[in-house]
Amino acid sequence: MISFDNLFQLSASSLGVDKGDKEEVTLVSHAHTDHTPTRYKNNHLLCSNVTRKVIELRRKLKQTKRFSHSNIKSRDAGHILGSRMFFINNKLLYTGDFNPQGEYSGKARPVKCSTLIMECTYGRPRYVFPPKTEVLKELKEYVEENNKVVITGMDSSFGKVQELCSALDRFKIPFSINERILRMNKGLGLHFKHNDQDSKIRITDDYEPFDYSGYKKIRLTGWNLDGWWGSGGDKNFVFSSHSDYPSLVQFVKKCNPDTIYTHHGYAREFADDLRKMGFNAAPLSLLGTRRKKHQSSLFDFIHQKVF
Predict the structure, then answer these.
(1) Strand stretches in the chain, DSSP E
(2) Are residues 118 and 9 in the same domain?
(3) pLDDT at residue 292 above 80?
């Protein structure tokens, strides 16, 4: 079987791949822990080199099994370092988490396809994000005005934190990072000139056992639009590695697929919006209830729709 971020599967035979009954293939879009496999012994991974390295560092693996196939092409997803979309048989585009407005991690570019399987974490019209360049400029000004600042996002040792390291480095602002981020950066060969572990400007997460009394607290997430994650922060910025609602809609229009399956976040609501715009869209979670009598599973449904 071929799985996508542990979200759904396709029969390996549908791609002409014979891996054997006890072997699997997983297409890993990026290295956030909710998108990476739980088993690796007989699992062959198709992913970027960065994603592979993060997995190996986290799981303390010497080497993961590799997989490639001429009918599966990877493309920048713009979410975090190493994030990828997968274009299969020149028909199906699977986005994983993606961002057409990405900067540090590249940009997700639309692909003409017949079937689009896309995440829609922020799939409601109220989620409209300011340009990242503007947010980072405001962040710079706030940090420079304060001597002791702790900055947190919603990921831990890998993801948005590397983008923040890069931003402060460009601004020539000395910054420190917690031990988990430090180990991850070293493992990936990421070196930031202005990383100074004595600096009182610190990039961390909510789990670091550290006394931050006297520090100004900054929280960066798209959910700050709801005030959902803002309790305890002195300054909250709307800053996300995901697509906002207008970007999701524009991406669909430019891909112009025959069929769209949505997942993550507001999957039902976004699919409803897309149908009102004239697209054939449905939440991925509902596919199992729509199969015909001769279709034994969701996997068979996707196979028949795509291959």
Answers:
(1) 2-4, 8-10, 24-27, 43-46, 65-66, 72-76, 84-88, 92-94, 115-120, 149-152, 176-177, 201-204, 216-220, 235-237, 259-265, 281-283
(2) yes
(3) no
